[in-house]
Every structure is written in structure tokens, then in C-alpha cells.
Design a protein that fits this description.
This protein is of the alpha/beta class. The strands form four sheets. It has a 17-stranded mixed β-sheet. Strands 5-7 form a two-stranded parallel ribbon. A two-stranded parallel ribbon has the order 9-11. Strand 3, helix 2 and strand 4 form a beta-alpha-beta unit. It starts with 10 loop residues before the first strand and ends in a 6-residue tail after the last helix. The N terminus and C terminus are likely disordered.
């Protein structure tokens, strides 16, 4: 019998048979024999994963008392899902002299206490809890850990830190990560107000990619704004953002992101998830549009940013002309607009957007909103030629107001009837008077919309 087929046995699993440089210790029970069986390997291990049930966590912890001079990566996990035990993550302690080469630590449903010299060697630190527990790391301890990890490259924390549990941190204290020059990725997942509490005490340089996940089932309308730090200057990427993207669809998820111009590094993304960590785009129909509208109005945080491109994917039905004007008028420097109204059902939602795009600017008299527009991409449904006519009216009014026409116009539409190729070409030529480059795609009424979305690469960068 294969030893993996017998769940009652203690499993000592070599990850690399050739070099025996990796080991996973797991099982449904722990005995002294388990620890003794691991000891012959410890001085040669480069990777160790310890997966325990709550009752056996401390016994498995004895494995970590061994000297591991070559160990580079350590994963510790405690599985509460099948134990029936109250969620109370145990603590494991690591001593510096036993792990001189350790640079990656990953912890799930446990606490880990490292001796101070070990932090300076860490390059990746992941501290995750799968549930909300009463015991968390106080904010002061977390900030001390991050301050000490001077070589850190990746930081990932989920439900691990309590920003309200420490009286030792002054309300306005901010830890700058400017000297953490190797740090390129931070992920924080928690309730929106806790995410905000953590971000409010960190100054994160704009070269770092920051992702925050808000776990909520009831406050989706306010959750995005609730995750922001008290002072936006803590996130320079927001003030320097050149591209912002809003998504609210099963394909793209529910997220709000900003990034620098022409840069793969340096970004900030907020996403919403359910309390158990799953995607939360599946909500009652009556909430779909208002949630996206609330997300769109959060773009006021970029009104002093040099935003050149806006990408919007989601249900636009709750976005009125007034809401569109309020959003677009603040983003005066925008040159590219990409708007997708989904699901693709004729609703007139794009019409409100186009009427806003031809509206006078309240903040810049004598101009229309988005006066520097150079590229316009639209994707959505149309009743007959309604959407095309609305685009033509919008661009004509902008030209009459002495706005430069866009160089590029791309429409990808889902009709409620059949279109002949000649009709499509006639409308394309009519639009050509308003843009130097015009692409008009009218999909087949029976096309699968998700497949068409995947195939229409020319409409998405």
C-alpha cells in the first residue's frame, strides 16, 4: 500500500527524492516517533512544511527545535477545519542560531515568533489567518517586524494584525518603507476598517505593488473608500497615478486599481471579497448598478493625479449623466477612455455616459469634460443603431465646442437584431468624420458574450 493511501499514518513526505532537500510533515496524530523520524534529515533540509491539527501543533513544534543550518523556506499550517476545536491559533518560536539561512516564512492559522536577528534575512513573509480570531498581533509588534525586515521583497498578511490592539503607537505615527528598496509586493486582507488602520501607519513608496482585499458582505457601497488610509499621502501611487481601472463583473471581479504610466511596477488595487474570502460579484440584481456607481464616485481621490487612462468594466445602469459628469470632470488630464457596459443588454446606459462626455465642464469654463480625449473605446449593447447615433451626436457636439476629435474610436456592440456588412460599413464611414481611426464591430446576435469578450482583443490593451 502507498503510504499516502493510509490516512491513519504519520506522513513524512520527501519533496525531492534526488537531493532530499525538502520535507513535509503532516498527519492525523503525532508521536515522538514522528519527530525522531524527521531528525536525520533536518541538517540537510532547504525546505520544510509542517501541517498539523490543533491538538498536535505543539508536538509538531518540536521539529522546529532541531538545528537546520541549510533551511531556506519554512511553511507552518494548522488545520482547524476538521478538528471541531475553538479557533485559537498556537504560537511557534524560532531561534536564530538554528535557522541561519531562513529567508521565506509562510504561516497559516498560527503565530510565529522569530528572534530579532532573523528578520534582517527575510525576503518573503506571509502571515495568514483564515478566520477572525480574538488574538491578533498588535500593531506595534507588526510595525517593528516590518521595520526589521530590511531585505524583504514580499509581504502578505490576512486577518493577522489588530491596529486597535496597541496603545504604544501614536495615532499619527507612520512607518516609512522608503529604505526597503527590495520590497516590491504588499498584500493586506481584512475588514475594510482594519485595512485602513494598517495603511494609515505605513508610508508605501510608489514603486511597490499594493493589493488590499476587503472582506465584507454588507457594506459593499462604502467598503472601497473605507479601506483607504487616513492620509492619501501614505500611498504616493494614488497621487502619481496615470491609469485607473474599475471592475465589477464575474469576468473581471470587483476591484479598483491605480498604476503609474508606462510602468509594470508601482500600483494600488482594492478588491472586495466575501467574509470567507471568495469573490463577491454575485449579488442581487438591485445592488449591482449602485455598487459600481459608488466605486466610480470614489475616483475623486485622483482629482490631483496625472491620470491619462480610465478603464471601466461593469454595469452602468445606475450611472446618471450627473454622476458621469461629476466623475469625468475631476479627471481633466484623461486622454484614453475605455468603457464596457455589462451585461450586454440594451438599456441606454451608454447614452448617459455619452451625454456626459459632451457636457460643459463645471470646473473648467469654456471646455467640455475630458478636453484632452484622444482615444475612446466602447463596449456594450445597442437597440438598433441607438448607441452608434449617440456616439455620433456626442462627438459632433464636442467638435462644435472646439474640442479636438479623438484620434482613435473603437466600438464593439451587441445588437438586438441582424446587421448586414454593408450597414456596418456605412455607419463606420459616418463615424470616420469624427476620428482618424474608426473600428466598428457589430457582433452576431447569437454570439456567446463571454467568448466574444475573450476574442475581442483589439478592444482591450
Amino acid at each position: 500500500m502507498n503510504f499516502l493511501d493510509d490516512p491513519s499514518r504519520i506522513v513524512v513526505l520527501p519533496v525531492s527524492v534526488n537531493t532530499i532537500n525538502g520535507l513535509t510533515v503532516q498527519g492525523s496524530g503525532c508521536t515522538s516517533h514522528t519527530v525522531e523520524g524527521v531528525k536525520p534529515y533536518t541538517r540537510h533540509l532547504k525546505f520544510l512544511a509542517v501541517n498539523a491539527l490543533p491538538n498536535d501543533a505543539q508536538k509538531y513544534g518540536k521539529v522546529l527545535d532541531e538545528d537546520m543550518p541549510l533551511l531556506e523556506r519554512l511553511s507552518i499550517g494548522v488545520d482547524f477545519s476538521k478538528s471541531g476545536r475553538t479557533y485559537n491559533p498556537p504560537t511557534f518560536s524560532l531561534r536564530a542560531r538554528k535557522f541561519p539561512k531562513l529567508y521565506t516564512v509562510q504561516v497559516l492559522d498560527a503565530f510565529v515568533r522569530l528572534e530579532q536577528p532573523m528578520y534582517a534575512n527575510l525576503r518573503s513573509l506571509q502571515l495568514d489567518h483564515s478566520q477572525n480570531g480574538r488574538n491578533r498581533m498588535p500593531l506595534a509588534d507588526f510595525l517593528n517586524v516590518v521595520r526589521s525586515c530590511t531585505r524583504l521583497e514580499k509581504l502578505h498578511i490576512t486577518r493577522y494584525v489588530d491596529p486597535t490592539a496597541s496603545r504604544d503607537v501614536p495615532p499619527r505615527f507612520v512607518l516609512s518603507l522608503a529604505q526597503h528598496r527590495q520590497l516590491y509586493s504588499i498584500h493586506i486582507g481584512d475588514s475594510p476598517h482594519i485595512v485602513s488602520g494598517i495603511l494609515s501607519h505605513l508610508m508605501i513608496p510608489s514603486h511597490i505593488a499594493v493589493t488590499v482585499s476587503g472582506f465584507t458582505d454588507t457594506s459593499a457601497h462604502t467598503a472601497f473608500r473605507a479601506m483607504l488610509p487616513n492620509d492619501l499621502r501614505n500611498l504616493p501611487v494614488i497621487l502619481q497615478a496615470g491609469r485607473i481601472e474599475l471592475n465589477d463583473s464575474p469576468i473581471h471581479g470587483r476591484s479598483f486599481s491605480a498604476s503609474l504610466n508606462n510602468s509594470r511596477r508601482g500600483s494600488f488595487m482594492m478588491e472586495l471579497r466575501t467574509l470567507d474570502g471568495h469573490d463577491c460579484t454575485e449579488v442581487p440584481d438591485e445592488r449591482i448598478g449602485p455598487i459600481f456607481c459608488a466605486m466610480a464616485l470614489c475616483t475623486d481621490i485622483f482629482q490631483r493625479s496625472p491620470v491619462k487612462k480610465i478603464v471601466l468594466h461593469g454595469p452602468l445602469k445606475a450611472m446618471t449623466r450627473t454622476a458621469w459628469v461629476a466623475m469625468l470632470d475631476r479627471l481633466h488630464s484623461v486622454q484614453e477612455l475605455e468603457v464596457e457596459d455589462s451585461p450586454y443588454q440594451p438599456s441606454g446606459s451608454l447614452d448617459a455616459f455619452l451625454r456626459a462626455l459632451s457636457s460643459p465642464s463645471a470646473l473648467h469654463p469654456g471646455m467640455r469634460v475630458c478636453p484632452n480625449l484622444q482615444s475612446l473605446k466602447l463596449r456594450g449593447a445597442t437597440h438598433g443603431a441607438q448607441a452608434i447615433d449617440a456616439v455620433a451626436r456626442c462627438l459632433a457636439e464636442r467638435v462644435q465646442a472646439h474640442m479636438h476629435p479623438p484620434r482613435s474610436l473603437k466600438l464593439n456592440l451587441y445588437p438586438d437584431g441582424w446587421w448586414r456588412s454593408a450597414e456596418v460599413e456605412t455607419y463606420r464611414q459616418n463615424l470616420a468624420q469624427f476620428a482618424a481611426e474608426v473600428t466598428l464591430r457589430i457582433n452576431h446576435p447569437d454570439d456567446d458574450q463571454e467568448e466574444a469578450s475573450d476574442d475581442a482583443g483589439e478592444f482591450h490593451d
